[in-house]
Specification:
The protein is an alpha/beta fold and 260 residues long. The chain has a single domain, classed as TIM Barrel (Alpha-Beta Barrel), CATH 3.20.20.220. Helices cover 39% and strands 18% of the residues. The protein is built from ten helices and eight strands. Strands 1-2-3-4-5-6-7-8 form an eight-stranded parallel β-barrel. Strand 3, helix 2 and strand 4 form a beta-alpha-beta unit. The relative contact order is 0.15. About 8% of the residues have low confidence.
């Protein structure tokens, strides 16, 4: 079993768990792309494999995208990226989707991640999300691009199983299934509203009357253990709790594949 995790450009990465090798770096609206590059450099120097986010709607134009990718490659020896649509607000340039980015032809030689949505998206229904993932699978087959799927985080086991069942007929890409690191349900409730994970949000709201549980740190073991037969790579969203995630991974049984 393998684990990766997500960090922001400003997180102190000196204390990341040694049980992970791949670390994705967020690129949120308004962030200078140089901050993402600098974090990728730090991760590379520490021996991790950085995965830089490339949000379509934050790219001002093709030169901006080219400059960003060139800096990632030359300064951080980047080998993997995660392409996302980004903020649903008005795009800064001509790119509005992952497919727009892929069609530029600028990602040759890179391993390319694309987003998966077990709980759907606020602006797209379930069928449309699946259709877009099928198109990205087709792109990988047609071009020979090495690709993988990195999903939004989810707490709901039945929803994850239903999503895996739905995409089984067409998806051949490796899946990095998003899960929350150890944190309180109260924190998850806040981020669920921001991230649009509606099924998980409903479940958390149903817990809102149990204040004691909302304030207790909950580890995601039930997800990892319950999905172990179908998923062998989990991507951890820490919500600022890097130390808690490190402690949890350290205490996990030896089913974790420790990076060489």
């Amino acid at each position: 079993m393998q684990f990766s995790m997500e960090v922001t450009p400003k997180v102190d990465v000196s204390a990341l768990p040694q049980q992970v090798r791949e670390v994705s770096i967020t690129y949120l609206p308004g962030v200078d792309c140089r901050e993402v590059v600098a974090q990728a450099v730090r991760l590379r120097q520490l021996g991790y494999e950085p995965i830089a986010h490339v949000p379509a709607r934050s790219m001002r134009d093709r030169p901006h995208l080219t400059h960003y990718l060139t800096a990632l490659k030359t300064e951080a020896d980047i080998r993997q990226v995660l392409l996302i649509g980004g903020s649903p607000d008005r795009p800064l340039g001509p790119f509005t989707s992952t497919l727009d980015l892929l069609e530029t032809g600028l990602f040759g030689g890179l391993r390319v991640g694309v987003a998966g949505h077990p709980e759907g998206m606020p602006v797209l229904n379930e069928r449309e999300c699946d259709r877009l993932l099928a198109l990205k699978n087709q792109y990988a087959r047609d071009t020979g691009t090495e690709m993988f799927v990195m999903t939004q985080w989810s707490l709901d086991m039945p929803t994850i199983h239903r999503w895996l069942d739905r995409i089984e007929a067409f998806n051949t890409l490796p899946i990095y299934l998003g899960i929350p690191g150890p944190t309180t349900p109260a924190t998850l409730l806040k981020f669920a509203q921001l991230c649009g994970v509606k099924t998980s949000l409903l479940g958390l709201r149903n817990q809102s009357g149990r204040l004691g549980k909302l304030l207790t740190v909950q580890p995601p073991d039930y997800l990892v253990d319950g999905l172990a037969g179908r998923i062998d790579h989990f991507h951890i969203y820490t919500f600022g709790g890097v130390k808690r995630t490190r402690d949890w991974l350290t205490a996990r049984p030896s089913d974790i594949a420790i990076p060489a």
